[in-house]
Design brief:
37% of the residues lie in helices and 14% in strands. The chain is an alpha/beta fold. It has a single domain, classed as TIM Barrel. The relative contact order is 0.13. Belongs to the hyi family.
Length: 270
């Protein structure tokens, strides 16, 4: 049965961030994820996890100047020292929060910049990140992101991400399969899940969901999530599925899809 983690960056925005943990626990979630924890001491977040019996599934390494428009450091030439420092910070948080998956964002590339140079830097930084994370028993995941939501993002396709992981060859480097981004960029979700779930030296380390095209609850739109949940189960995926969507109204009021799934023991049917 799929295990769902609430994404506290997108969900429960009707609460202050530190109060979203208890709100998610009241709704029955057993795990959470979010983009960035760095505005808070890790001990404060750990207290929220422990007090609400929640597991930390995932968060992102520092992305550079997010408010200034940056979306990751890993592929950016000339920022290698900053990237290494960002990994030190992220792994310090992961050791305290207890998660074993860490998302490293690639960053943006302008049309006039060299893709070959960005790729070379990206591979070196990912190899470094995987090596740094290995002693902490953390898996680094990289995520292809659609260019409608994030124009200029370096990594967009699942096959490209899998090829990069295979080329580096680190056992703790995998792909984050976001169904929303993949549907917008490529489609053919079921075929790609079957193709990539069991890959050697790569594979799928984390899954996220949202309705397409508007990134709301996964109960409407063009993706048949009940079918995909059954498929993910059949492929033996045992990790968390992050609910990275924007609720149409109140978060709790929009969880009918999840309540139906839990009560029936089967995927929600629309």
């Amino acid at each position: 049965m799929p295990r769902f983690a609430a994404n506290l960056t997108m969900m429960y925005n009707e609460h202050a961030f530190i109060d979203r943990f208890s709100a998610a626990a009241r709704d029955g979630f057993k795990a959470v994820e979010f983009l960035f924890p760095y505005e808070f001491p890790p001990s404060d977040i750990k207290t929220q996890l422990d007090d609400n019996a929640l597991k930390q599934a995932l968060f992102n390494a520092p992305p550079g100047d997010w408010s200034g428009g940056e979306r990751g450091l890993a592929s950016l030439p000339g920022r290698e020292d900053e990237f290494r420092r960002s990994m030190d910070i992220a792994l310090d948080y992961a050791r305290i929060l207890g998660n074993d998956k860490l998302h490293v964002m690639a960053g943006l590339i302008a049309p006039e910049q060299s893709r070959e140079q960005h790729r070379e830097v990206y591979l070196k930084n990912l190899a470094l990140a995987a090596n740094m994370a290995a002693s902490a028993h953390v898996t680094i995941v990289i995520e292809p992101i659609n260019t409608r939501d994030m124009p200029g993002f370096f990594l967009n396709r699942q096959d490209e991400a899998q090829a990069i992981c295979s080329e580096i060859g680190a056992s703790n480097l995998q792909v984050q399969f976001d169904c929303y981004h993949c549907q917008i960029t490529e489609g053919d979700l079921a075929v790609k899940l079957r193709r990539d779930m069991k890959r050697r030296n790569a594979g799928i380390g984390h899954i996220q969901i949202a309705g397409v095209p508007y990134r709301n609850e996964p109960d409407t739109g063009e993706v048949n999530y009940p079918y995909l949940f059954d498929l993910i189960d059949s492929l033996g995926y045992s990790g968390w599925i992050g609910c990275e969507y924007r609720p149409r109204a109140g978060t709790s009021d929009g969880l009918g899809w999840l309540a139906n799934y839990r009560h029936s023991g089967h995927s929600p049917r629309t």
